[in-house]
Design brief:
The chain is an alpha+beta fold. The protein contains 2 helices and 8 strands; from the N terminus they run βαββαβββββ. The strands form 3 sheets. The chain has a 4-stranded antiparallel sheet. It has a two-stranded antiparallel ribbon with strand order 2-7.
Length: 116
Amino acid sequence: MAIIYHIARRADWLRARAEGVYRGDTLASEGFIHCSTKDQVVRVANHLFMGRSGLALLTIDESRLKSEVRYEAAVDGEVFPHIYGPINLDAVVRAQAFEPGEDGRFTDEALKVNFD
């Protein structure tokens, strides 16, 4: 099973569950962030969301996705998955609270809290 991680606003994820589909416009000002490793999640979170609370981390099973996935290189050559289209909810195998520490930084510890 190939895993993709996605950082979202917790309120948007909860609304998506009620609506039955998650669309990629939920973090419009920062972009639709996907990662393929937990290290990428922590680096991206600290780069784009440092100090920001109320986030969720979705764990997505790529084999269940109905939308197209492309792995694309960033400026530094690191490869990130990009999902083109909505995320069908049955592809999300875990959703967890994703909060920074007291210093505003995200760590591996932030990846261990589950709220589903």
